[in-house]
Amino acid sequence: MALAEVSQAVFGGSDGVGHFSRRSICQTLYCSRESGSSSRSGTCAYLDGCFGPKIFKAKAKAVIHIFAEGGPSQVDTWDPKPELAKYNNKTIPGHDGLAFGSPFKFTPKGKSGIECSEVFPALGECIDDMAVIRSLWTDIPAHEVAQRFMNTGSLQLPKPSVGSWVVYGLGTENQNMPGFVTIGSKPEWRQASFLPGVYQGVNVNYSKNMNLDDVILNIRSQFSPMERQRHQLDLVKQLNQMHADKLQKDAQLEARIEAFEIAFRMQTEATDAFDISKEPEEMKSLYGTSDMASKFLVARRLVERGVRFVQINAGGWDHHGGLEQALRGRAADIDGPAAALIKDLKQRGLLDDTLVIWGGEFGRTPFIQGDINDTKRWGRDHHPYAFTAWMAGGGSKGGVAYGATDELGFKAAQHPTYCYDLHATALQLLGLDHEKLSFYHNGIRRRLTDVHGEVIDEVIV
Predict the structure, then answer these.
(1) Higher pLDDT, 312 or 268
(2) Distance CA 307, CA 64 (A)
């Protein structure tokens, strides 16, 4: 449920964002555990999570997911392939198409000596805090399907998003804020699906130049003071509760009741979280002045206030043509802000328990796409068999390059890592066993990782 519905019901508005919190809804939701029956009606709480005690010692408390929508080229960003350059504009033996050697230079960075592309000079300075996973692969090179898979673990059926699973398992640390916030994402990336609606993500179409009252539309009533709103909500809650009793505790209705409550409490704290004017000038300078920079700064402010999972849509990586110029520009947009985020979290002591993840839905081919006679128009097509992601903080091991593709960057060759493995690893860093975090639905115990997933121990401290 979006806050647009919440604010419209409470204040008569028509747009916005939203989420829910603890209170009486938690006594009505059905959660599953591995110890005992396949489902139970319990006293699970949104604040504490419905999954119960953590299985592993948690290293991370929160996640900031920088989703590189579009499919970044691995061989131009984090996976150097000098052998590919030798075949540039030539046919590669055993392959169709002409080779496209990266136009970007890679150089070793940090004490670890991991090679980084020149398009990420600032992130290169942070490489000793990063674990680069170079052997990811997926199934289908179609944006919509691959994005669904990376964000929900499902290729076809609607299933809960990663953020929804995390909040389901751990709850939120702040009842006055949503547990799961997305900045500019698509509905499918934040859906709760068969999980109770209380775990659905909240989307904010944030821009640094927006009036704060426009960031979260209708979050404040222009007609009623707080005291009167409280009386209104109490009446609405009482009426809804009477109706819910007749329905024998309908979970969707309970979620809507809680939406009213969180919308009311968000009126002060949520607006403050998006007000980056309160940041010192040196901090704003560290992140930069771009719109993207402000989103990264907001992500830190949200995590600081107890939001469990924040996703930033940092897309624009679908480079079928004009790759050299377009990729350089896209990388520049996130390089400084992402590096600033890592440094900022580190100096505040938050990097130890905040897991930062960057990556897209698939990679790109090592071949030329476009007019072969015009190098400025060269691009790369979609490619599922090799792509790269990186992690920083939250118990991930810095200065590590895990896995490898073949000499051309065509296919994951060493430690092939499926998307489920990435999900399983993130959950373990949060103290959750991906095989035990489940929800009983339609006679099946559902998991984010389905029946797959292996934790990548080599990237965990």
Answers:
(1) 312
(2) 10
Question: What is the residue-wise DSSP string for 1-16?
Answer: --HHHHHHHHHS----
Beta carbons of 359 and 390 less than 8 angstroms apart: yes
Distance separating alpha carbons of residues 260 and 229, to the nearest angstrom:
10
Percentage of the residues of the chain whose pLDDT score is greater than 90: 68
**pLDDT tens digit string along 235-277?**
777 777 777 677 666 666 666 666 666 665 666 677 889 999 9
Domain assignment present for 270: no
Range of the domain at 435: 51-215+278-455
- Kindly write down the DSSP assignment for every residue of 57-82, as one continuous string: --S-SEEEEEE-TT---GGGTT---H
pTM (predicted TM-score): 0.85
Tokens 């930069």 locate to 288
135 — pLDDT class (breaks 50, 70, 90): very high
Distance between CA atoms of residues 269 and 108, nearest Å: 43
401 belongs to a structural domain: yes
Alpha-carbon Rg of the chain, whole angstroms? 23
Neighbours of 60 (CB within 10 A): 25
The answer to whether residue 230 is domain-embedded is no
* Residue 70 located in a structural domain: yes
Domain harbouring 321, CATH code: 3.40.720.10
CA distance between the termini of the chain: 37
Task: Please give the full DSSP string across 204-226, using - where no structure is assigned.
Answer: E---TTS-HHHHTTTSS-SSS-H
Q: Which two tokens stand for residue 163?
A: 């953020």
Cβ atoms of 102 and 80 within 8 Å: the answer is yes
CA distances from 393 to 63, 90, 239, 346 (A): 9, 41, 46, 8
Please tell me the total count of domains within the chain: 1
Residue pLDDT, tens place only, 57-92? 889 999 999 999 999 999 999 999 999 999 999 999
Q: Is the pLDDT of residue 425 over 90?
A: yes
